[in-house]
Amino acid sequence: MITEAVVCTALGGAIGALIRWIVTSISDRYLGKFAWGILAVNLVGCMTGGALLAVPGFSESPTSPVNVFLVTGLLGGLTTWSSLATSSISGIEGGEKGGIRRGTILFLANLVICPLGFVLGLAATEMLV
Fold it and tell me: pTM to 2 decimals?
């Protein structure tokens, strides 16, 4: 069972990352360096994640091969925003006590903490190199 999840994640991730690279390469070439491609894959990934959550029974089986391939693999390789949005909204829609608060905190924490981590990593590496 673990092998199946690993294969589904790796295959989906490889496909998603390849799609992201193709889209960003084409958009950089024809639309300039504003990162329109990143915006496009983030939007498509989030829309797809939202659409998948609306499929009856999909969110109830997060470890199924299809779910692992699509969400963790394909959308995770395409964009981490889709995974973040899916996890945040799942927490909000879960109906469990504190779900809205946990989902909102997860989203906002990632929005603030991850760019700060990037800046800290950049600054630390620049000091060492």
Answer: 0.72
